[in-house]
Design brief:
Elements: E1 23-30, H1 52-65, E2 70-75, H2 79-90, E3 96-98, H3 116-120, H4 140-157, E4 162-167, H5 169-179, E5 198-204, E6 207-214
Parallel strand pairs: 1-4, 2-3, 2-4
Antiparallel strand pairs: 1-5, 5-6
Helix pairs in contact: 1-2, 4-5
Length: 236
């Protein structure tokens, strides 16, 4: 069976090029839908778990990766990420290891319901001064640095095989743009990183040579209430 990478599983032996260079895959998974009836931008706040639909999404992604030669699963410490990682790890008889580098990005609006009224409040205007940094949260460059460090660490640990890291939309999208050599600032609604999606980075040795994308839970997105599609971690 081939995955989003178009390559067959390694069948228990390290995958290499003809010259012995290891070929490694790291699947970067976004968590599933969160139970969030108050429509809060929850950010790094504890206590936000997957909804019932989010759990279905996690299982769909676990099924998508079940035939891959996954040797390690790491996750952001936040509940929604751990709960998405658990069925993936279980399918490979693995434990979920936590990595603080995969945390959601910091955001000054954390804990608030983000709507037009809140955004128009003059008290918040200083936060909009520099959207390229951005001025309302953790700088894109810092997100990219920590996510690249997490990615490279997992790649080294599963050299010649495959690994999974579970994180959040903005960190994943920032990581992808960094790997592809693109500018980090972007429009939030143009992120291609839907709920429970899989962004796969193919490495030849330490070099990322290709990025692929799959939506194993795509058939469930229309039913999602919280954090759907490309709109970022703010509810519709």
């Amino acid at each position: 069976m081939s995955g989003a990478d178009g390559l067959p599983p390694s069948e228990g032996t390290p995958r290499t090029l003809h010259d012995g260079t290891p070929v490694t895959l790291v699947h970067v998974v976004r968590h599933g839908e969160v139970h969030n009836p108050e429509r809060i931008l929850y950010g790094r706040l504890p206590g936000y778990h997957l909804s019932d639909l989010g759990q279905q999404m996690a299982r769909a992604t676990a099924d998508h990766l079940a035939d891959r030669d996954v040797r390690r699963v790491v996750s952001s410490p936040l509940e929604r990420a751990r709960e998405t990682a658990q069925p993936i790890a279980a399918a490979h008889d693995l434990e979920v290891d936590l990595d603080e580098r995969l945390l959601e990005s910091g955001n000054a609006f954390e804990g608030q319901r983000v709507d037009r009224r809140m955004l128009a409040d003059p008290r918040h205007w200083p936060l909009y001064v520099n959207p390229f940094r951005p001025s309302w949260g953790e700088p894109y460059a810092e997100i990219a640095t920590r996510m690249r460090a997490g990615l490279d660490a997992l790649r080294a640990q599963v050299k010649g095989y495959e690994g999974v890291m579970v994180s959040h939309q903005l960190p994943i999208w920032t990581l992808r743009r960094s790997v592809q050599g693109e500018r980090l600032w972007h429009h939030p609604r143009r992120r291609r990183c839907s709920l429970a999606s899989v962004t796969t980075v193919l490495f030849h040795g330490p070099l990322p040579v290709r990025v692929m994308y799959a939506e194993p839970a795509g058939h469930l997105l229309d039913a999602a209430v919280d954090v759907t599609g490309e709109a970022g971690e703010v509810t519709r």
